[in-house]
Amino acid sequence: MSDDPSATAATTATTAKSSWNEQIIAEFRANAGYVPWSSEEDFAAGRPVPPRIPGFDERGMPLILVHHTGARTGRARISPLFFQPVGDNWAVFGTHGGSPRHPVWYHNLMANPRTTIEVGTETVPVTARLAEGAERERIWAREVALVPKFAEFEAASGRQIPVVVLERTQGPATS
Predict the structure, then answer these.
(1) How far apart are CA 79 and CA 136, in angstroms?
(2) pLDDT digit string, tens, across residues 89-129
(3) Is pTM, for the whole model, over 0.85?
(4) Tens of pLDDT, residues 29-62
(5) How many CB atoms are located within 10 Å of the residue 168 CB?
């Protein structure tokens, strides 16, 4: 065991995030793609699904599970993410809570774009690509209208939030 307090704190934070994701993934799968709203107490304790957001129903927040492969490690990972339907495809947003860095899942998808997602009760092979220009602006504006907090995340981050389109593909995907 390390005597370095920063290493211990990093390990604790990673373990907490992993257990949060596991809880959210289990709730997603038990509720056909919806994760129940957090109470104020849950949210204050760090449960990563927000208190009720206007415009969404009683079932909770619809999420998408994005499978991705570690760009450096090659390890399989799953990230529960907010999404927006875009035709027959889906868009996800690299807000990383307003961090100045892109989330790890973003880097992983850019390095390994062929993957799968879980949406509702369906598992779908997809290819990830970065939305740019007018397409990005249209999707981003719609998302900010639905979840205004995302505009605050972009302002706090000092970077343009990546919008990743997950395009439905035919045949098997790697994950």
Answers:
(1) 21
(2) 999 999 998 999 999 999 999 999 999 999 999 999 999 99
(3) no
(4) 999 998 887 777 776 776 666 556 666 667 777 8
(5) 14
The neighbouring-strand residues paired with 85 are 90
The first and second tokens of residue 110, run together, are 């850019």
Query: Long-range contact list for 153-162, CB < 8 A, 24+ apart?
Result: 153/95, 153/96, 153/97, 153/98, 154/95, 154/98, 155/98, 156/98, 157/95, 157/96, 157/98, 157/99, 157/100, 158/100, 159/100, 159/102, 161/93, 161/94, 161/95, 162/93, 162/94, 162/102, 162/106, 162/130
Please give the structure tokens belonging to residue 158.
């000092």
* Residue 16 structure tokens: 């907490």
